[in-house]
Amino acid sequence: MSDAGGPYLSVDGDALNSWSFDVFTVGENKELFPYVVRMFHEMNMFELVDQFKFRRFLSEVEGMYRDNPYHCFKHAVDVTHTTYLYICAVKEQVSMTQVEIFSLLVAALVHDLDHPGVTNGYLIATHDNIALTYNDESVLENLHLSRFFSLCQNNEDANILSAFDESTYKEIRRSIISCVLHTDMAHHFKLVSRLNELVALGKKNNIINGSPMKSTTDDERQLMLNVLLHCADISNAVKPNELCVKWASRVLEEFFNQGDRERSRGMSISPMMDRETTSVGLSQINFIEFVIAPLYVQFVAVFPALNGLLTRLIENRRYYQETYENELADMTKGDGTDRSPEKESLRARFRTLIEKHSLRRFVDESDNLMKAILSLPHTRRSSATRSFNAMLSSPSKKKTM
C-alpha cells in the first residue's frame, strides 16, 4: 500500500529520531504532516493502511484539534513522536505486533482530539454538556475517543480502520480505547502501582532489565501500551531542557486561562491555575517529584534502554530548583522577608528525591548547585507518599515571570 515517493522522504531522519525534535521549529501544523507520515512509514504501518487514506485522515485530525496553548495539534504530534521513540527503544523487548504498534501510534495522534482547553474537573463543575454526556467519568478522554471513531465511521475517505476484518477492528478499537482512557490523570497512581508490581515480579522472575517479555498476558501487554502512551503524554519533564520549558510554559498558560474563566464565574480557582499566585518553579518541582519521578523510575526499570530519560529528569528538576530560588530571591527583595529556610527545604527535598529513587548516577556532580544539594544530610520526609491531590491543594507562591 505504500508508495515509493511522497513528502515524507524529505524529512530529516536523524532529526526525527532525536529526543531534541522540536515541533515548534517545523512551522505550521500542515508542515508537520510529513513527519507523522514518516513515523508511520518507518514502523511499516502502510502495510496495514492505505497511505493516501491516512493522509486524508491526518488532515481531518489536524482540523479537529483546537488552537489551545497546550492541548493542540502540535502536542498531539509531539506525543506521537515520543511514542514512536519509545516503540523504537522497546519493541523488541516486548515483541510488539504491527497491530499493537498501529493502535498505539493512532491513540497517540488522537488522544486529545477536540480538547476544549479546560480540565475534566472544570467541565464537571460547570455542568458542561460534555460532562453530562459522559456522566462525569473520564469526560475528555471519552470525548476524544468518540470524535475519533465518529470520524472513521462518517468519513470513508479518512477511515483508516476500514481495511481491517471485524476481529482485528475489535482488537484495535479495544486497545485504542484503553490507551486513551488511561491518559486521564485519575488513573495515574494506579498505573504507577501496577508498574511497581510488575517491577517487583520482574525482579523475582527475571523478566525486566532488558529481558524479552514474550510470556506476558494480554492484560500485561495492554498495560504496557497504556503506560507507553501515558508516559509519552506527560513526558515534557524528561525532554531536553529547552523543550521542557517550552511545554511547561504552554501548559501553565492553558491552566491560567482556565483560572481566568473560574474567576469570571465566581468559582474557586483550581490549584496551579491562578496566574497571580502560582509559582512557575514550585509548580514544576511538585509535578516532577510527585508525578513524574515515581512513574519514570519504574518505567525505566522495565525498559532500561530508556535510562537517559532519568538524566533529563534530574537536569530539569535542577533547572526548576534554580528557577524557584530566583523567585524566592525576587520576593525577598520586594518585602525583605528571609526565605532561606524555604530554599533549604526545597534543596533537601531534591536530595531526598535522588536518594529515594537511587538517582545519583544520573547527577552531574561537577555542578555547584548539585554539589551543595548532595552535601546536605539525609532526612526522611513523610510528604514523599502524599497524594497528588494533597500536593495540588498546598499553598501557591507569588509568580515571577
Automatic annotation (TrEMBL):
Tell me the active site. Answer: 71 (proton donor)
Molecular function GO labels: 3',5'-cyclic-nucleotide phosphodiesterase activity; metal ion binding
Q: Which residues form the PDEase domain?
A: 1-327
The entry marks the following residues as binding AMP, namely 71-75, 112, 233, 284
TM segment ranges: 287-310
Q: Report the Gene3D superfamilies cross-referenced here.
A: 3'5'-cyclic nucleotide phosphodiesterase, catalytic domain (1.10.1300.10)
Which residues does the annotation say bind Zn(2+) 2? Answer: 112
Which residues are listed for Zn(2+) 1 binding in this entry?
Answer: 75, 111-112, 233
Task: Give a yes or no for keyword Membrane in this entry.
Answer: yes
Question: Which biological process terms from the Gene Ontology are attached to this UniProt entry?
Answer: signal transduction
Q: What highest taxon heads this organism's lineage? A: Eukaryota
The record, for PROSITE patterns, names: PDEASE_I_1 (PS00126), PDEASE_I_2 (PS51845)
The residue range of the signal peptide is: none
Q: Enumerate the UniProt keywords alphabetically.
A: Hydrolase, Membrane, Metal-binding, Transmembrane, Transmembrane helix
Q: What PANTHER family does the annotation carry?
A: CYCLIC NUCLEOTIDE PHOSPHODIESTERASE
Q: Spell out the protein name for this chain.
A: PDEase domain-containing protein
